[in-house]
Amino acid sequence: DTAVSQTPKYLVTQMGNDKSIKCEQNLGHDTMYWYKQDSKKFLKIMFSYNNKELIINETVPNRFSPKSPDKAHLNLHINSLELGDSAVYFCASSQDKTQYFGPGTRLLVL
Amino acid sequence: GEDVEQSLFLSVREGDSSVINCTYTDSSSTYLYWYKQEPGAGLQLLTYIFSNMDMKQDQRLTVLLNKKDKHLSLRIADTQTGDSAIYFCAGANTDKLIFGTGTRLQVFP
Description:
The complex is a heterodimer. Chain A has strands at 4-7, 10-13, 19-25, 31-37, 43-50, 53-57, 64-70, 73-78, 87-94, 99-101, 105-109. Chain A is mainly β. In chain A, strands 2, 4, 5, 6, 9, 10 and 11 form a 7-stranded mixed beta sheet that branches. A 4-stranded antiparallel beta sheet of chain A has the order 1-3-8-7, with no helix packed on it. In chain A, 32% of the residues are buried. In chain A, a hairpin with a 4-residue loop joins strand 9 and strand 10 (99-101). Chain B is mostly beta strands. Chain B is 0% helix and 57% strand. In chain B, strands 2, 4, 5, 9, 10 and 11 form a 6-stranded mixed beta sheet that branches. Chain B has a 5-stranded antiparallel beta sheet with strand order 1-3-8-7-6, with no helix packed on it. Chain B has strands at residues 4-6, 9-13, 18-24, 31-37, 43-50, 55-58, 61-66, 71-76, 85-92, 98-99, 103-108. The chains are: A mainly beta, B mainly beta. The A-B interface holds A 31, 33, 35, 40-45, 48, 50, 55-56, 58, 90, 92, 94, 97-104 and B 30-31, 33, 35, 37, 41-45, 48, 86, 88, 92, 95-99, 101-102.
């Protein structure tokens, strides 16, 4: 009965590959987010979707493409992975003013 | 844009109180949050405070907000080893959370 879940938990891949990370929430929330946490633990928002519509896009390279097939899912596809994409990616969802985070996907680009 | 600052480290003895501080620049932040991140884990929402409040208490946690100085603090009473983690403050006036740099709390016996 996990509220916000992400798959995979770990992802190790080569530079130049394309990969996807999936997120699902069973809280019935309308809004979902992707955040990136770098090696210094700094957290920054990447995208926000409300009811399948893009609301926030924080100057993220267009190699990153979020997709929301329905309001319970927000996936993140990354093309042509670079070394600097190595980070922990967190999905979150919210209904009111509180955001609930998933466990994170640890991406390592070699 | 919003800038949120925290001290990087705090070390306390088990049973003492911990106070984690945060300063922010955007006075329009209507909600301010504290999240906890344990090693290898996601972010756990601990508590939040509306900007029209000065204080909020929730069991061992006390949040103090000084809007004039744009200063937020989290006090953990009777700190336990299980409280060792990184603590993030965050501000929001829309759906976008702006996180602080995180404070690593270490509790020693």
